[in-house]
Amino acid sequence: MTNEERAGILLADAGLPADPSAMSMASDYLTRSRRGRRFGLIGGVVIGACLPAAADQAGLALPLIPAGYLLGVLLSELLTPLPARGAVRSAELRPRRRTDLLPRWGRAAYWLVLIPVLAAPLMTLTPRAPGLTHIATAVYTCGARAFPGWPRTLLVLAAVLGAAALAIAEITLAALNRRARPGDDAGLARLDDVIRRMSARSVAAGATAVGLTMLAMISQELDQVGHETVCPPRPSALEPAYPWAASLAPWTNWATVIFLIAALFVAVAFQWRNTIPRGDLA
């Protein structure tokens, strides 16, 4: 499907005629969205390929690639606003609120998943259980997996990416809320409102999906930590290095998969699909 055909669908969903001005405005937005996804994919591959290799954690590429992709999409919404066309601008008599662009639950969703991500580095403060990784005496020999400690760099990375997604989402929503509307054409004003709501939904979905992918990465690390053990001072079974993490180990592996599937669902259902809304703008 060509960009003009997509623009025509967008205008049809908005109940607007496909006149040249409206087609140009809709086509510009769809072009920017496609460009954001393209550069986001490049950024995601770079992040997913370089950072895990530097940390010797190749498995982390799975959550980092989509996280980098989604951050690129968010940045495209923030850094490429609709161009000014020199038209007369208008303001509504009622102050514009963010809930006009995005329902409260949409904003609460990405805050809900990003707050635990921001708090992830606090897990490194958890003390390790007393014990050694190797004990050898005349009557007792024990060997446990050597454990270097919490992956502080990766947890901080998750928090940094989560903070970036949260900051971009909040700044972009504020910019969308402040942006003036075209005042010389009622049709263009309606189309501007439609595109503004599309951008707000795309930003909220992207930030939520970034949070979910970071939670997947944290769960993956938590699963690894939960399987680490230490040798007890006297002969007995190996003891977990972090008992609370070990108690979560039966669930963390599944949590990684669930978070990634949820991130994919959010991205497909509310962001990529949102490029061409259907049925809810008539």
N-to-C terminal Cα separation, in Å?
A: 22 Å
Strand content: under 5%
The chain-level structural class is: mainly alpha
Secondary structure: number of strands:
6
Helix content: 55-70%
Low-confidence runs of at least 5 consecutive residues: 85-91, 276-282
Whole-number radius of gyration? 24 Å
* Count of discrete domains: 1
Major sheet characteristics? 2 strands, antiparallel
Task: Report the average pLDDT across residues.
Answer: 77
- Broad shape: elongated
Give an overview of the whole structure.
This protein has 282 residues and is mainly alpha-helical. The protein has one domain. Helix content is 65%, strand content 5%. Strands 1-4 form a two-stranded antiparallel ribbon. Helix 3 runs antiparallel to helix 7, helix 6 runs antiparallel to helix 7 and helix 7 (186-226) packs antiparallel against helix 8. Residues 85-91 and 276-282 have low confidence and may be disordered.
